[in-house]
Specification:
The protein is built from 8 helices and no strands. The protein is an all-alpha fold. α1 packs across α2, α2 crosses α4 and α3 crosses α4.
Length: 198
């Protein structure tokens, strides 16, 4: 954390609302991004981010300054999102990801490559839906936030071996899903180009 963030955190823990607002401004993007990658819906991600900051505000007195603030904050977001995903399952609601508007950047030197990259990101977001909520959280915290096994363990209340096991299982499942999806798309493309006579 930068020096101003350390100062804001210290003041916020003493009840300074302006300092807490500064922390929200500093961390709103990573918190929203985690919620979006977990939930796949912009509206739900915004609600989850607001809930995360509300819960953090309520729990500031319990925050351990020896622990990195961003890890603590992301763990609140991850746990909230896991709960929301479990509620969805219980209500039998679909887990389809609603696509972001991903028009290529007109300033990009290669719009076609940018479009392909956006398509790949969207495909990965959809594949994340097939993982269990804790596995999804572990993958997002590792590959989008670059947290260590120890930090992920603290964020998700897991042992380091449990984190390694979850990451291994999730990577294997994602690889299997990616391969199946790619094979399916190639077969569909091949059928599209075949003569209808055969």
């Amino acid at each position: 954390m930068s020096n101003p963030e350390v100062e804001w955190l210290d003041r916020a823990r003493k009840g300074d609302e302006d300092a807490f607002s500064s922390l929200v401004e500093a961390f709103k993007t990573p918190v929203y991004n985690l919620c979006y990658r977990m939930l796949g819906d912009t509206g739900e991600a915004e609600d989850a981010a607001q809930e995360t900051f509300w819960r953090a505000h309520q729990s500031l007195g319990k925050y351990d300054p020896a622990r990195p603030f961003n890890t603590w904050l992301l763990s609140i977001a991850a746990h909230y999102c896991i709960d929301q995903i479990r509620k969805r399952h219980m209500q039998s609601l679909p887990l389809d990801i609603i696509s972001e508007e991903t028009a290529p950047d007109p300033e990009a030197p290669n719009p076609e490559a940018e479009f392909r990259k956006n398509e790949e990101k969207e495909a990965i977001r959809k594949l994340l839906n097939h993982l269990s909520p804790p596995d999804r959280a572990a993958i997002v915290l590792r590959y989008w936030y670059d947290l260590s096994d120890e930090e992920i363990g603290k964020a998700l209340s897991l042992t380091v071996p449990a984190v390694k096991s979850r990451l291994h299982r999730a990577r294997r499942e994602l690889a299997t899903l990616w391969l199946a999806d790619t094979t399916h798309n190639l077969a569909a493309e091949r059928r599209h180009h075949e003569s209808p006579a055969f």
